[in-house]
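Thread title: Can someone regenerate the structure for this chain?

I was given the following input by a collaborator and told the matching structure tokens would be attached. They weren't. Posting the sequence so someone can regenerate them.
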Amino acid sequence: MELNNMDLTVLEHIELPPTADLHCHLRQDAMMHLVTPYIEKGGCDTALVMPNLQPPITQVSQAVAYLEALSQIAPQVKFLMTLYLHPTITPNVIAEAAQSKIIYGVKLYPAGVTTNSQDGVLDIGQYYPVFEAMQAHDLVLNLHGETPDTEVLQAESAFVPTLHTLHAAFPRLRIVLEHVSTAKGVEAVRQCGPTVAATITAHHLFMTTENAEQDVYNFCKPIAKTLKDRIALLRAAVDGSGKFFFGSDSAPHPIASKEQSNAAAGCFTQGWTTVLVFDALKQAIENGWISNHKITQETLEGFLSTYGKQFYKIDELNGPPRRRIRLEKSDETIPKSIESLSGKLEVVPFRRGEQVMSLSWLDRL
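Best answer:
Regenerated them for you:
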């Protein structure tokens, strides 16, 4: 199929490089063992792993141990590790992290905004020496871009001035506004220089606030916003600018945690990330929100794989060809749940029961 003639509404099959999931949660213990194998099932060979465990990953030694545990479960995946911004993170820790060659970023969680963020940041200004060290050592600052104690639909928009302030203070610091969910957030990233980018999730490409309110398994942080915001995300995903790339923010929780009165925030998408993006873009074309000529092989590969790898300066871009994935039209459906071998742990995927394209791995070129 020609680069500039890709109609996803009639597409029967396509081959692509593996997806890079540049924001995911793999948890720990039994949950880690259950969900980590789904990285490859979702068509991904690279995963940036979030550090909000209990206790959080604040030391290089902890990140090394976590990497070893994940690699034993999924040895074909390249795991990119992160640290949790915390008072114990100092410029010396940043130097050690850079030297480790396994840590690619430091995650800033405003205190209390999402799962396991109780140890997060109360005063961003106190971390300016850390950001200066990150800029010097070329580590990425990963922002959960929501302002605490703000009305939930306005929390990301309220954080935008902080993004601009940080970018102005540290213009060489690579910054990612994670799981951007608003048109205002998209525009803020566009206004910044080339050192600022954003990840977009599959579930935010599908939902508005209405969807999140109808099904507890659609509830996530940041919460899905308006139709205008959803369309802005869809258009950013295929704009070819290189400033927007895929990060699933797949966040598994046990059924009991999702169905309690104070439901845990997070959508589990890990095993179907690539096909979900395709379905979301197909819906956008059918609804007239984006046009066919915006979607080419180059823009798809850029959003799903190459833009993020380039931003993170992953060496493999200059290495030998890697395996490829093939998506094709099928009658495959997302299961109603997945569970551990013991049957004691069960997780419900996003868009359970929905029909999707099938995904298979191909041999090396």
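The mean pLDDT is 94.
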